Amino acid sequence: MNDTDTAAPAALDLALPWRHRFADLGPAFFTELPPTPLPEPHLVSLNAPLAQALGLDPARLRQDDAVRAFSGSLPIEGARPLATVYSGHQFGVWAGQLGDGRALLLGELDTPAGPMEIQFKGAGRTPYSRMGDGRAVLRSSIREYLCSEAMHGLGIPTTRALIVTGSPQPVIRETVESASVVTRVAPSFIRFGHFEHFSANGLADELRRLADFVIDAFYPGCREAGGNPYARLLEAVSARTADLLAQWQAVGFCHGVMNTDNMSVLGLTIDYGPFQFLDAFNPAHICNHSDHGGRYAYHRQPNVAYWNLFCLGQALLPLMDDQQQALDALEPYKTRFPAALTQRMGAKLGLADTREGDAALIEELMQLMAKDAVDFTILFRRLCDALEGAAEPVRDLFLQRESFDAWAARWRERLQAQPGFDAAATAAAMRRVNPRIVLRNHLAQIAIQRAEQGDFGEVDRLLKALSAPYDERKGEDDLAAFPPDWAQQIEISCSS
Ligand SMILES: Nc1ncnc2c1ncn2[C@@H]1O[C@H](COP(=O)(O)OP(=O)(O)OP(=O)(O)O)[C@@H](O)[C@H]1O
Ligand SMILES: [Mg+2]
């Protein structure tokens, strides 16, 4: 027997069908490098339904060698880890070169759910890490893991997370925390900032190659539509972004760092840093403690998305005939976003279609909610119950009850004007678009505190509840309840 017979395998072989289409773009787009191993890795949580959807065996992923591999400590056969380069505007200011300072793309898998890229976040320093340590802390990995699943459960386009691993390795943030790696999954992790990078550096060939890749892989219709395909691409990304923003707003979701490097060209929610699902409704709410000017306040997000799309348009200009082409491609956002929002908010109120006056009806409710700081999620859920006779609980959410009564009377009138209106059927339809459970800050906080003590049960419980947020299940009343008073003291910053 020689040494190699007894040695542990040098890589985890899951016999996966890897492809490397992003790597095929060429070396200008990335730097290849292995993850930096973490000592004594352990499993924090595995998203078994996602594993299954990807054609992976959850039991296999729980084994020791898989846990080592998904913490960066053992190579994965066929993977080709690389950090991509991108640039971007941060808080409205050109930040120059960024890049995956702590994310590594392993490659792409052909899965039953279609081609999916697999990425580590927190797997060590890269050439783009700047001053950072390349790590992610357990706290932020759990937030990303849970919230991306919450978004998916809500039906909102998002990157997802397959597995979180942890390690006792200390990581310095405001306090000493511990290191963690979250493995994310998405059809593509390409951001607006990837385009900005090649455009700003005058790399026209690379810019075109990237745009052609995105069109061929994800937006083939842009070539078939006629005209300039890159203008069509901008239009298509704008449409997806408009829909995404409408979906965020309609569940009271606030993205904390809408920099152009955190905007997906596929219209996915990406970068779960300082996000928040609103508790008490305040349209000017700022969920990122580091956002002193409130640039990313909840009510500013639709305009910020347009500003970001404008940056993408500017980046794509070298591929277009003139500036007007880009402006024309951006124009539909201005009507698509409000229409999408009215449609979604209308559905939350049980409206089967959009009629004149609906936007005003919605706006008035939002104003009443803001005045009385009404809980966003509970309000809409109680409106469902109100249709079935339980009128008091929703009314009790307001201080100015007469104002609410007047609004509710108009709402009922509008509903009753719908052909064949049926209160029970409408309430059921409303419950399919008004979640009972969202990842409130305090829920994440409780799961994180327990995880930091080595108990991952609450992470798993939340993951399950958030994956079906519209359903009413026993034993989950605490997840659907009002936030405790201490929730207001939680400060979420960029530190992650
Ligand atoms: N601890 C860190 N070490 C190295 N680079 C980092 C670190 N934290 C953030 N960065 C990099 O700084 C830039 C801005 O950070 P930002 O908070 O937007 O992203 P992120 O949370 O790391 O990740 P992502 O957008 O990939 O979800 C990104 O390019 C990111 O890779
Ligand atoms: Mg980011």
UniProtKB/TrEMBL annotation:
Keywords: ATP-binding, Magnesium, Manganese, Metal-binding, Nucleotide-binding, Nucleotidyltransferase, Transferase. It catalyses: L-seryl-[protein] + UTP = O-(5'-uridylyl)-L-seryl-[protein] + diphosphate; L-threonyl-[protein] + ATP = 3-O-(5'-adenylyl)-L-threonyl-[protein] + diphosphate; L-tyrosyl-[protein] + UTP = O-(5'-uridylyl)-L-tyrosyl-[protein] + diphosphate; L-seryl-[protein] + ATP = 3-O-(5'-adenylyl)-L-seryl-[protein] + diphosphate. ATP binds at G99, G101, R102, K121, D133, G134, R184, R191, D271. Pfam families: SelO. InterPro entries: SelO. Its cofactor is Mg(2+); Mn(2+). GO terms for molecular function: AMPylase activity; ATP binding; magnesium ion binding; manganese ion binding. The active site is at D261 (proton acceptor). Mg(2+) binds at N262, D271. Its EC number is 2.7.7.-, 2.7.7.108. Nucleotidyltransferase involved in the post-translational modification of proteins. It can catalyze the addition of adenosine monophosphate (AMP) or uridine monophosphate (UMP) to a protein, resulting in modifications known as AMPylation and UMPylation. Belongs to the SELO family. PANTHER family: PROTEIN ADENYLYLTRANSFERASE SELO, MITOCHONDRIAL. HAMAP family: SelO. This is Protein nucleotidyltransferase YdiU. It comes from Hydrogenophaga intermedia.
